[in-house]
Design goal:
3-stranded antiparallel β-sheet; 3 strands
């Protein structure tokens, strides 16, 4: 992902010429990034999800600063990501088991 998204840097390289500059508002901060055009929609959507989650936590825990809300939002997203990754690993394992069963079945029926 870091190849797709970089925080603005004045030292632009030839590889960066493939990218363009956008500004994203996250946790009440306007942050400049250089991104590949084909990733713009996904990156803007991600930034909006983060910003919405931060706003939600700021409302829920009034009096806390944006950094606290941002930290909790990131934790929330990473926990969900870990859940998805674990579920994906389980599905991969189940598919491998099914593949072994299919191979065993096919071998048994080829011998007949």
């Amino acid at each position: 992902m870091m190849d797709e998204l970089t925080v603005k840097d004045d030292n632009v390289t030839a590889k960066d010429n493939e990218k363009f500059r956008i500004h994203l508002n996250i946790a009440e901060r306007k942050i400049p990034f250089r991104i590949k055009r084909e990733n713009e929609e996904r990156i803007r959507k991600a930034a909006n999800l983060i910003d919405d989650k931060v706003k939600s936590y700021r409302q829920k825990y009034a009096g806390r600063d944006a950094q606290d809300a941002l930290s909790v939002a990131i934790l929330d997203f990473v926990v969900k990501l870990l859940d998805v990754m674990e579920n994906n690993d389980l599905q991969t394992m189940q598919l491998k088991e099914l593949e072994v069963e299919i191979d065993d079945y096919l071998q048994l029926h080829e011998q007949k």
